[in-house]
Design a protein that fits this description.
With 208 residues, the chain is mostly helical. It has two domains: 1-48, Homeodomain-like (Arc Repressor Mutant, subunit A), CATH 1.10.10; 64-198, Tetracycline Repressor, domain 2. It is 73% helix and 0% strand. The protein contains eleven helices and no strands. It has helices at 6-27, 30-37, 41-47, 51-75, 83-96, 99-112, 117-124, 126-142, 151-163, 167-171, 180-198.
Length: 208
C-alpha cells in the first residue's frame, strides 16, 4: 500500500480547488482531479472517500488560509478599539463577498443536506473563528469597554451584523462585485450598530 504524505494531500486539495472553481461541484469529477494531480483515481480515493469529502477539505483549507488569519490578526492587533474592530470587519466583509468564497458557501449549503461536510466545516472553521472573536470581546468586557454579557453571543451578533447587508444578496446572485465604498459603508453601519448595543459608552457618529 502506498504511503500517504501530507504534501501529496495538499497537492490534491490545491488541484481540486482549481477544478471546483472552474466546473463547480456538480461538474467536477474525481477523474479530472486525479488526471491533473498525476495519478489514479484509486490513489485519490486513498486520501478522500468521496467528492464531498474532498470538497470539505478544500473548504477547510480556504477557512484556514483566508478567514482564520483575520481572526488571529484581530486578537493580536496593536490598534486601539474600535479601530481594530472596524479593520477586522472590513476584511471579513470583503473576503465574504469574493466570488471564490461565495462559490464555497453555495456548495457547502448544497451538500450539507446529504452529508456531514457542512457540520464539519462549521465546527472546524467558523466556530473556531467565533471562539477567537468571543475571547477578544471578553477581554474588552473585562476592561469595562463593553457591557458584561455572554461574549459568545456578542460574537455571533457582530458576525451577523457584518454579514447582514452582503451575505444573502451575494449567495443569491443579487450582489456582484460590490464597490469598496459600499463595503466600507456596510462595515461602518454594522460596527456602529454593534457599539450602540454593546459599548459602555457608544461613540456618537461613525466608528473610527
Amino acid at each position: 500500500m502506498r504511503v500517504r504524505t501530507e504534501a501529496k494531500r495538499e497537492a490534491i486539495i490545491e488541484v481540486a480547488s482549481q477544478v471546483f472553481r472552474e466546473a463547480g461541484f456538480e461538474g467536477a469529477s474525481m477523474a479530472e482531479i486525479s488526471a491533473r494531480v498525476g495519478g489514479s483515481k484509486r490513489t485519490l480515493y486513498g486520501y478522500f472517500e468521496s467528492k464531498e469529502d474532498l470538497f470539505g477539505a478544500v473548504a477547510q483549507s480556504a477557512a484556514d488560509t483566508l478567514f482564520n488569519p483575520l481572526f488571529e490578526s484581530l486578537i493580536t492587533s496593536v490598534e486601539a478599539f474600535p479601530k481594530a474592530l472596524k479593520q477586522f470587519g472590513q476584511a471579513i466583509v470583503e473576503l465574504g463577498c469574493e466570488e471564490h468564497t461565495i462559490q464555497i458557501f453555495r456548495t457547502l449549503i448544497g451538500v450539507s443536506g446529504r452529508s456531514e461536510i457542512g457540520i464539519q466545516f462549521y465546527l472546524s472553521g467558523p466556530a473556531k473563528g467565533l471562539e477567537m472573536l468571543a475571547g477578544y470581546l471578553h477581554n474588552l468586557m473585562d476592561q469595562g469597554v463593553l457591557k458584561p454579557c455572554d461574549p459568545a453571543v456578542a460574537a455571533q451578533h457582530l458576525s451577523a451584523l457584518l454579514q447582514s447587508e452582503t451575505l444573502l444578496p451575494s449567495l443569491l446572485g443579487l450582489l456582484k462585485s460590490p464597490s469598496t465604498a459600499f463595503l466600507e459603508q456596510s462595515t461602518e453601519r454594522a460596527v456602529q450598530a454593534f457599539l450602540n448595543a454593546y459599548a459602555v459608552q457608544p461613540p456618537s457618529g461613525q466608528a473610527a
